[in-house]
Write a structure and sequence with these properties.
This protein has 127 residues and is an all-beta fold. It is 0% helix and 50% strand. The chain contains no helices and 11 strands. The radius of gyration is 13 Å and the shape is globular.
C-alpha cells in the first residue's frame, strides 16, 4: 500500500508559478512510476505529466509542455510538479498517482494504469 499526499496548491495570478509536491509513504518510493492528473469543474480528469521510477523518462500533455516540469527526489519520497506561466485554464484539482514499475524507463499516461492516488490539491489561476 502506498499513501500519497499532495500539497502546494493555492491561488495565483495568470503568468505566475506554483510547485506541487506529492509525499509518498508505505512502500519503496523508488519502485513506483509517478503521474500528475487534474480535474477541472465539470470536466473529466486528465493526464498532465508522468515520470519513470528513476526520473530518467518524463512525458507531458501537450497543453502543459514547456510550462510544467515533473521531477522526483527518491531520497525524500517526493514527486514534484513545477508549474510556470500558469493560465486560467490550468485551474483544477491536481492529483498525484503511483504505479509499481521498478524496471526500465516506463512512464504511464492513463488513469487506469495507476494503482494509488492522493486526495488532490486545488490550483486556482485568476485572470
Amino acid at each position: 500500500q502506498v499513501q500519497l499526499v499532495e500539497s502546494g496548491g493555492g491561488l495565483v495570478q495568470a503568468g505566475g508559478s506554483l510547485r506541487l509536491s506529492c509525499a509518498a509513504s508505505g512502500r519503496t518510493f523508488s519502485s513506483y512510476a509517478m503521474g500528475w492528473f487534474r480535474q477541472a469543474p465539470g470536466k473529466e480528469r486528465e493526464f498532465v505529466a508522468a515520470i519513470s521510477w528513476s526520473g530518467g523518462s518524463t512525458y507531458y500533455a501537450d497543453s502543459v509542455k514547456g510550462r510544467f516540469t515533473i521531477s522526483r527526489a527518491n531520497a525524500k519520497n517526493t514527486a514534484y510538479l513545477q508549474m510556470n506561466s500558469l493560465k486560467p485554464e490550468d485551474t483544477a484539482v491536481y492529483y498525484c498517482a503511483a504505479v509499481y514499475s521498478p524496471y526500465g524507463s516506463s512512464w504511464y499516461g492513463r488513469e487506469l494504469e495507476y494503482d494509488y492516488w492522493g486526495q488532490g490539491t486545488q490550483v486556482t489561476v485568476s485572470s
